[in-house]
Amino acid sequence: SKIVNVYQDQYANGEHCTGIGDFIRGSLCLLQYGAMQNIEVEFNYDNHPISHFLTQSQTQSQPTPIHPFRVLCYKNNHQNNNTWQKIQQEFTKVIAQNPNCIQPNTSAFAMYTIAFPMQPVHLQHKQSIQKIFQRTPTLNTKIRETMAKMEIISKQYTIIHVRAGDEYLIHRAFTSPQLAINCKKHFIKTGLHQHLIKNKAETEPTEKEPTETEPTETEPTEKEEAEKEEAEKIKDKYVLISDSVELKKQLKRAYPKLITAHYSVTHLGEGVANKKDLQPTQMQAIENTMVDFFLIANAKKVHAFSTLEHGTGFSRQCCEIYNIPYHYTFLAPSI
């Protein structure tokens, strides 16, 4: 037997998928359930716009009435009363109650879940998710070009991810300057502010004038100069990504040291992007969103800030599967 976690724009009863972080989270939970029940687990995103930028899914999904599995989705299932037994009962129940979700000719049960993993995630399960996020050559090229423009190297920069909220990401509301002010307050509180305002003069020792008793240093070779220049390029790099272009501009003005790209991104769920009716601007925003995802995957660490108290799955789950050190701060309205 097999279960397929299907990520697509729309499900039964007109329900839409949620964000890509939720899909990853539910897939990790399903892998744990499959290991417990000795059931094979696969994943499919052929009917979601991200399929334009990732290689083919593991399995070809047939058009069946897939029902989202909402039980226990917004709780941390390895805490409180959410146990192995409870999640086992819930998954088993949803499979038994929805026989029409069995894929024809394959006996695979198609579903969509965003439930939390039940225990710390094993490396094997993280690698299983990494395998389905293989990038197309086009997306690889875009990522390389973006990193080149930013002058950043994989694992040698820190991501600052600010999630402004769905009113900006979905409804394109104007980002109030107050949000940028609030960000700066939290940057100070978390210690990021000091790193972002340091300049070259503050981070390097002052050169001394040579004296009669102090020999002058040997002139560096061209190779040494090149190595020093390269080291300076990658020193203390902070890359800002956000769901609000206006917020990125505001924070860039406050912290010129921040590296960012002023392109638009989009929510990958909530019915924002329909694969059957994508406009060129939507396609570009989806590609930019996937570029941001892989910028996070290549970072050495991530500081995430969100106006949503439960956090931001986009960066949290990316860091989970790629083993990136992650620090989250709730952007409380006032501190």
Description:
- It is a single chain.
- Mean pLDDT is 82; it is low at 76-81 and 200-210.
- Helix 12 (313-322) links the parallel strand 7 (301-306) and strand 8.
- The chain has helices spanning 20-37, 84-97, 123-132, 137-150, 166-169, 177-190, 192-197, 200-203, 222-234, 245-254, 280-297, 313-322; strands at 2-6, 40-44, 68-69, 108-113, 158-163, 238-242, 301-306, 326-330.
- The chain has twelve helices and eight strands.
- Helix content is 40%, strand content 12%.
- The relative contact order is 0.17.
Number of strands: 8
Question: Judging from the principal axes of the Cα atoms, what is the shape?
Answer: globular
Task: Compute the CA-based radius of gyration.
Answer: 23 Å
What structural class results from the helix and strand content?
A: alpha/beta
What proportion of the residues form beta strands (DSSP E)? Answer: 5-15%
Helix coverage percent of residues? Answer: 40-55%
Oligomer status: single chain
Q: Strand order, main sheet: write it out.
A: 2-1-4-3
Low-pLDDT regions:
76-81, 200-210
Main sheet properties? 4 strands, parallel
Number of helices: 12
Could you give a short description of this structure?
With 335 residues, the protein is α/β, with parallel strands linked by helices.
